[in-house]
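hiii so um. not sure if this is the right channel but i have a protein structure encoded as tokens and i wanna go backwards to a sequence. like what aa goes where. can anyone help
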């Protein structure tokens, strides 16, 4: 392993985790159909390196005095190492682990959650500027960052009330996805709804997670307004603010055993996106500990 995330203990075997309720971090440095310079496939190692410029301590949180143990399992190739992902899910159920996954583009969510245990009390929530509900993206490509939740829904026979998109606001959606959202094929809280009626939006999230036994959370960084992370490859206007994101996470994370953070594209000369996601990892750990 070249580097580890600050405060995490490096491991090469899952058998090294003995304690229940530990946090297991791993990276999926993978892009299915794009290879932009400084793209998201470079993010897991870049985030680990950037974390070393932080202390892991704030006025509210000290990760070195927590109840949980933190482990960094390095990077996994989702194509060649599918069995390793299956073993991670078994270990998660055995020890009630919480998983924190660093992508990669959004297609890695399918790679991880297609191996996850699902039942009618399991749900997925994704925070994203885009719906990622295309049947094909680009045309002729059926498994990509743009088809993630269509494939999860189809392959796991998920009902619309097991899927919640939060914050969609992009102007690069397809007509196909627009009609899926309009027809309520999945649950959806558009970004403008938070500004028109924040309390109603938060109530919808609380009601969604209330009767679920397990929630998987996928966080695309482009759900955040481009004013805060302007270096993303798919930055969009009119998105979430960081503090609104934290309020949303506080409602979801208590029911969540899995979080992935995807599409952390950045420019080498601008560390804004890296700093934001490193801080986000610490904030997730903080909320999990409370």
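sure thing!! here u go:
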């Amino acid at each position: 392993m070249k580097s580890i995330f600050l405060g995490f203990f490096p491991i090469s075997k899952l058998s090294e985790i003995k304690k229940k309720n530990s946090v297991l971090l791993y990276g999926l440095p993978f892009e299915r159909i794009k290879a932009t310079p400084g793209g998201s496939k470079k993010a897991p190692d870049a985030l680990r390196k950037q974390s070393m410029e932080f202390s892991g301590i704030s006025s509210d949180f000290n990760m070195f005095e927590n109840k949980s143990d933190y482990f960094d399992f390095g990077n996994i190739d989702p194509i060649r190492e599918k069995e390793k992902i299956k073993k991670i899910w078994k270990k998660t159920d055995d020890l009630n682990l919480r998983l924190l996954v660093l992508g990669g583009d959004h297609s890695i969510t399918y790679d991880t959650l297609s191996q996850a245990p699902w039942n009618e009390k399991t749900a997925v929530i994704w925070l994203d500027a885009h719906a990622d509900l295309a049947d094909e993206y680009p045309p002729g490509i059926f498994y990509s960052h743009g088809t993630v939740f269509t494939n999860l829904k189809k392959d796991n026979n998920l009902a619309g009330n097991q899927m919640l998109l939060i914050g969609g606001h992009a102007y690069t959606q397809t007509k196909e996805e627009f009609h899926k959202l309009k027809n309520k094929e999945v649950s959806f809280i558009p970004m403008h709804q938070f500004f028109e009626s924040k309390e109603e939006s938060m109530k919808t999230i609380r009601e969604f997670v209330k009767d679920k036994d397990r929630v998987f959370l996928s966080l695309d960084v482009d759900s955040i307004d481009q004013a805060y992370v302007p270096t993303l490859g798919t930055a969009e206007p009119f998105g979430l603010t960081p503090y609104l994101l934290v309020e949303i996470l506080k409602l979801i994370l208590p029911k969540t055993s899995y979080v992935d953070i995807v599409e952390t594209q950045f420019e080498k000369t601008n560390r804004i996106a890296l700093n934001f996601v490193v801080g986000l990892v610490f904030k997730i750990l903080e909320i999990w500990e409370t």
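oh and The first helix runs from residue 43 to 51.
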